[in-house]
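ok so for the tutorial part 2 we go from a plain amino acid sequence to predicted structure tokens. step 1 is just haveing the sequence, like this:
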Amino acid sequence: MATSYFLLSVLLALVFSQAIASDPSPLQDFCVADKDSPVKVNGFVCKDPMHVTADDFFKAAKLDEPRNTKGKLGSNVTLINVM
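step 2 — the prediction. this is what the tokens look like for a chain of 83 residues:
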């Protein structure tokens, strides 16, 4: 009986720890790669949004053109590579 209480408490602890361990601001609208930064942990770090200019976005990806959002989910994702 004590074993079942112990397993239940461990399970609840794991569930609650996952619920608490979240990013306080999970939404990130855009990330412009800072190629000049010396920090390269998992690729490039993002530029400070206050220093992003219109020149950071290039026309080759046609980001200024509207995309088709009439699918099942009603959204569209445009993949961009920083290289």
